[in-house]
Write a sequence for this structure.
């Protein structure tokens, strides 16, 4: 806390009293720390691929290019690392856009069923790679008040995570439910699960339960931070239920479109 005091002096130098101003700056200090951590994280995340791209291209230029095997394997690494950089920059720009004050989405009546069908189509190739299948319980449609493209982004992100953090040959279940107020979408996996103590943190920027696993699978660590902002921009909510070793269920609540 910061405390300032000043005497209040009236006419003819008469003492009237003292004004004391107290500022609770703990929130400001915390925000400043969050900002510093973010900058440090971004720098680190950018430096890692760049160091690797630089190192491998230098080695190639020094003569390694003559060995065709080395040439191919190094080029492959350089290509993958530049992809990672591109994804990171895309996610950073996206996050900064939706975190800006006054960010709004264009609301219109949107079918959860249509959005989910598109999300399934988009993520199917990755499902096939891991020999995974969808089980869908989305026969009953619900119209919500939302932005179809933004909702797509939310669900493809959640499905992509469900694929990433699940073993091969498992199932992802998608459900549409509703209450009087909300259309609800559940994305349930049979994956590694998340510890109770980690659940609150996974929506933080760059927070990952297992850094190596997330990086190897191409994750930027920003996906759920983006999801949370998009859900909140819809005046919705997101909950996580999870059991380590059994799987996780992400529940997204989006306000129903009312006539
Ligand atoms: P990432 O790019 O690392 O996947 P996210 O912001 O999407 O970043 O997720 C943050 C972290 O939350 C992940 O690194 C992972 O540890 C955890 N996580 C997200 N979704 C799941 C899931 N379905 N099952 C288990 N862990 C998950």
């Amino acid at each position: 806390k910061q405390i300032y005091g000043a005497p209040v002096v009236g006419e003819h130098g008469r003492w009237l009293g003292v004004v004391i101003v107290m500022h609770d700056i703990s929130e400001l200090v915390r925000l400043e720390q969050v900002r510093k951590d973010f900058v440090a994280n971004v720098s680190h995340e950018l430096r890692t691929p760049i160091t690797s791209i630089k190192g491998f291209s230098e080695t190639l230029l020094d003569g390694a290019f003559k060995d065709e095997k080395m040439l191919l394997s190094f080029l492959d690494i350089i290509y993958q690392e530049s992809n990672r950089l591109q994804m990171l920059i895309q996610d950073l720009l996206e996050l900064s856009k939706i975190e800006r004050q006054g960010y709004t989405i264009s609301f219109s009546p949107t079918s959860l069923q249509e959005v989910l069908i598109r999300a399934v189509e988009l993520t199917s190739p990755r499902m096939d790679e891991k020999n995974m299948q969808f089980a869908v319980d989305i026969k009953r449609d619900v119209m919500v008040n939302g932005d179809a493209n933004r909702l797509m982004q939310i669900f493809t992100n959640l499905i992509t995570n469900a694929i990433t953090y699940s073993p091969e040959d498992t199932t992802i279940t998608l459900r549409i439910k509703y209450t009087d107020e909300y259309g609800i979408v559940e994305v349930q996996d049979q994956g590694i699960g998340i510890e109770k103590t980690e659940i609150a943190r996974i929506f933080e920027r760059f927070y990952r339960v297992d850094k190596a696993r997330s990086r190897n699978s191409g994750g930027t660590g920003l996906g759920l931070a983006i999801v949370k902002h998009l859900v909140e921009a819809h005046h919705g909510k997101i909950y996580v239920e999870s059991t380590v070793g059994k799987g996780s269920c992400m529940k997204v609540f989006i306000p129903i479109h009312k006539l």
Observations:
- Residues 26-61 form the longest helix (36 residues).
- The beta strands are 2-9, 15-23, 108-111, 133-137, 143-146, 171-178, 182-188, 237-243, 247-255.
- DSSP finds seven helices and nine strands in the chain.
- Residues 161-162, 164-165, 189, 191-192, 194, 202, 207-210, 214, 219-225, 248 surround adenosine-5'-diphosphate (CB under 6 Å).
